[in-house]
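User: What would this chain look like folded?
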Amino acid sequence: MYGKLFPPGDNAETVRRHIDQKSGGANDTQVFPRPDSAVLSHPHRRFTGPDRRQSGRGPPQAERDAALKSLQETHDAFLKSITGLSEKQWTFKPAPDRWSVAEVSEHIAISESTIFGLVQKQFMASPAAPERRAEVKVTDQQILTMVPDRSRKAQAPEFLKPTNRWPTREELVKAFEQNRTATENYVRTTNDDLRDHFGPHPLLGTMDVYQWILLISAHSERHTKQIEEVKADPNFPKE
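Assistant: Here's the prediction, encoded as C-alpha cells.
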C-alpha cells in the first residue's frame, strides 16, 4: 500500500525529507496503519503472544537488551512525568485544540496495546519473509531519534485519539503497565524471528517487527515530551 519510500543508500537527512514530503508538513498525518478488526475490537486487551508462533531462536541478545533498555527508560520517564499531578494539572488544556496531560497519557496507553496488537495479530501472523529485508530503508537508530522529534508534528488517527477510555488515572496507568510488561516479556522470551516479519508504516515505510517494538518505545518518548510541553505552559496550574 505504501511502497518503498526511501531509495537505497539514504542517510538520515534524506529519510527526514521523505517523511516531510509524505506528511506535507500538515497536522493530519496518520502515523500508524489502521489495525484490523481483531485489534480494534479489543482496544484494552492484553496481548500475550502471537497466534502463529514462528520457529527460530529469536533476536540476538544484544538486540533484546537494547530494546528492553529503551522500553524501560521510556516507561520510567512517562510515569515520572505524570507522578504527583493534581486533578487540575492532570486535566489542564493549554488551548481548546491541544491535549491535556490526561489526554496525552491516554493516547500513550491505547497506542501501547494497539501497536503490540498489530505486531502479534497481523505482522507475526504472516509467514516469515527474509527476502523482504531489503524493503526496510529506515534504521533502528533513525526510529529512536526521529520519532521522538517534536519539531515534526503529526496528528493521531481517530482510533488512537483520547476518548476517556479509562475512568480513572489509576486504571489508565494500570493498563499502560500491563501492556508495557507484556511487550517487555515478549522481547525477553520470544523465539520469533522478528527481523523476518514486516508491517508498513505510512511515514517510515516497511519496518520489521523488531523495529515496530522500538517504535512503541520511541512513540512513548515523543508523547512524554508532549506532556512536559503542557507542564511548561505559563498557565499550567501551580497545584
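The first helix runs from residue 12 to 23. If you want, I can go into more detail on any region.
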